[in-house]
Design brief:
The chain is α/β, with parallel strands linked by helices. It has one domain: TIM Barrel (Alpha-Beta Barrel). The protein is built from eight helices and eight strands. Strands 1-2-3-4-5-6-7-8 form an eight-stranded mixed beta sheet. Helix 7 links the parallel strand 6 and strand 7. Helix 4 packs parallel to helix 6.
């Protein structure tokens, strides 16, 4: 990627949905700030940040965030860009450059919806969390976008061929993920060389459409967890 001369003016168009000052769970093993960028091309029914689906709902708060971040040198390991889908933000490479220039490591949460933009951002990233929503063939029904499964496969291929540390993780719920689907997802990822994988229990919102309750106690079952663990160098079940 060509070097870009960065000024504050270059990044003022970035649309932020807010930021979280401290997090110990958004980048495994790192204490970080999390910046939420507005905008996402997909419409998953269980989205937990529906207010961030439209880029126009974000605020041009990047200069204020950078001013705040300047006082956190030595206190934070890095900054994770989340969303929404952060790769929908056109100025993301500039934001990453500015954060790195301040001495912070950079991380990204992405759904894999923009593989061509991910390719451009990878040289500026230290870590990526790739959201695996379901099997590639099931993506269109979940996201409402034809071809979304192919985009995820291309994004995964980019990460596997890069030197950037990454993990795959799936927010799971029995309404969307049968036992067989979970087994097939794990098999797909492990056979392609994914080493770090996590399941996150999805907690539906009160106004969830369709309305579904929390996963029953003991789901997913211990046998499935044990089976999945054998496929990866590191596997965990988290509360989302």
């Amino acid at each position: 990627m060509n070097a870009v001369t960065l000024t504050n003016q270059d990044a003022t168009s970035a649309r932020l949905g807010g930021w979280q000052p401290f997090s110990a769970c958004d980048w495994p093993g790192r204490l970080c700030a999390v910046v939420f960028l507005a905008g996402c091309p997909w419409r998953c029914g269980y989205c937990h940040n529906p207010h961030l689906l439209r880029r126009k709902n974000g605020q041009t708060d990047w200069p204020r965030f950078i001013s705040w971040l300047a006082n956190r040198c030595g206190l934070l390991d890095g900054v994770v860009f989340s969303g929404g889908e952060p790769l929908q933000e056109p100025s993301l490479p500039l934001l990453l450059q500015q954060v790195r220039a301040m001495g912070f490591a950079t991380g990204l949460h992405t759904s894999g919806s923009y593989p061509h933009r991910l390719a451009k951002a990878l040289p500026l990233l230290d870590w990526v969390g790739l959201d695996i929503k379901t099997l590639p063939s099931h993506y269109a029904a979940l996201t409402g976008v034809t071809g979304s499964g192919e985009h995820v496969q291309n994004s995964l291929s980019l990460l596997l061929s890069s030197n950037v540390t990454f993990e795959c993780r799936s927010s799971i719920h029995p309404h969307w993920h049968s036992r067989q689907t979970l087994q097939q997802m794990a098999a797909w990822l492990s056979t392609h060389g994914v080493r770090h994988y996590a399941w996150q229990l999805l907690r539906p919102a009160p106004d969830q459409i369709p309305p579904v309750g929390a996963a029953p106690p003991g789901w997913p079952d211990l046998a499935l967890l044990s089976e999945t663990k054998t496929r990866f160098e590191h596997f965990s079940l988290r509360n989302s």
